Amino acid sequence: GSGVYEIDASKIKIDNPMWDHSIKKLVKTAAYKLGVSPYSLFAKLDKLIYMEKGGFINRRRDDDEDYRVLGKSVLGTLLIQMPSKF
Questions:
Q1: 31 vs 73, higher pLDDT
Q2: 10 and 49 Cβ atoms separated by less than 8 Å
Q3: At CB < 8 A and 24+ separation, what contacts does 29-36 make?
Q4: How do residues 63-76 score in pLDDT, each as one tens digit?
Q5: Is 20 strand, coil or helix?
Q6: Are the C-beta atoms of 74 and 68 separated by less than 8 Å?
Q7: Are strands 68-69 and 72-73 parallel, antiparallel or unpaired?
Q8: CA 81 to chain centre
Q9: Which of 55, 42, 46 is nearest to 12 (CA)?
């Protein structure tokens, strides 16, 4: 979409000591809500997407199709919206 920018995960450093714990808890909650074993899911940072006011992302249903991470099939994409002011 317009006004959308990406930063690759290799260029991102997260210093918050609670980040990993919070993400694992979020993935566990999502697994239960999806009806899958929480031990079969994990989250891996792929990129940071940020956008200008009015920016948007065009996603297709098959964006995750045939995508693999660490040799495992991807169930879906987890989007985390950080607090911001526009």
A1: 31
A2: no
A3: 30/78, 34/75, 36/75
A4: 544 566 656 677 77
A5: helix
A6: yes
A7: antiparallel
A8: 9
A9: 46
